[in-house]
Amino acid sequence: MQISWNGTTEAGLLPDGDYDYQLSVASGQSQLVPLSGRVRIDNTPPQAPLLMYPAAAAKVTGTPTLEWEQLHDAAYFLVALGKGELPQAAEIVHGATFKPAALESGQYSWQVTAVDEAGNHSLPAESSFSLTALQTDKFALVNAAIAPNPFTPNGDGRRERLLISYTLQQEAEVKLWIYNLSGKLVRAVELGQQASGDHFISWDGTDRAGVKVSAGTYLLRLVATNPNYGAPAVVQRPLLVIK
After folding, report:
1. Each residue of 175-232: pLDDT tens digit?
2. Backbone phi, psi, residue 45, to 5°
3. Fewer Cβ neighbours under 10 Å: the N or C end of the chain?
4. pTM (2 decimals)?
């Protein structure tokens, strides 16, 4: 015998949660021992993933490892990546990164959909990036981008980590300085000597004392130095922190 139930009552669809059930069967004058158990109802889809790297419309010089924010209620993700348009088929990915096979230069679109244990699908998150050849004919710091912006390191599990990405056209010693609007240095990170190519660093929103920074506008300053050249290469980006 098989009995199906669609998770509704006469009043309509039940809210998400755990429900106890009991099934009683009578045969003639006797009643069999009731069967009981618990069932979970989950009709709420996960939130759409937040795509982290590459940042929207960013430029990279090598095949990137795609990265997005992990979701606590996602069992897996469906990832589609295509040159120009998205393909019909998607890769099933467990975790929040995906390393595609080597890509050729061009414009790419990518999409990530979260799927929970009940099979509910989130709205798809979409973005794009350009893959170009690395230019090494001069010393420069290019393709700087930050995501997400605004940034909300408040412990709610969303927008908790900032990714700062950039490309070095030649090797350099790199430093990251973060200032508040009054000009006070709140965080300094020595990234050391780095090879030419694409790089990124993450920031959890803490200052030099390990305390979460206050809400407000901040200035991120990346400085790359190569002793074979005079002036360092400098890139600045504003960042909005919301609590």
Report:
1. 999 999 999 999 999 999 999 999 999 999 999 999 999 999 999 999 999 999 889 9
2. -70, 160
3. N
4. 0.84
- For residue 240, how many other CB atoms are within 10 A of its CB? 13
What's the token pair of residue 192? Answer: 């050391």
User: Whats the size of the chain, residue-wise?
Assistant: 243
N-to-C CA span, the chain: 54
Amino acid at 53: Y
Give me Rg for the CA atoms of the chain: 25
Give the separation between CA 43 and CA 54, rounded to whole angstroms.
32
Q: How far apart are CA 176 and CA 201, in angstroms?
A: 9
CA distance 45 to 145: 30
| 3-state SS track over the chain | CCCCCCCEECCEECCCEEEEEEECCEECCEECCCEEEEEEECCCCCCCCCEEECCCCEEECCCCCEEECCCCCCCEEEEEEEECCCCCCCEEECCCEECCCCCCCEEEEEEEEEECCCCCECCCEEEEEEECCCCCCCCCEEEEEEECCCECCCCCCCCCCEEEEEEECCCEEEEEEEEECCCCEEEEEEEEEECCEEEEEEECCECCCCCECCCEEEEEEEEEECCCCCCCEEEEEEEEECC
Angle at 49 between CA 48 and CA 54, to 5 degrees: 140
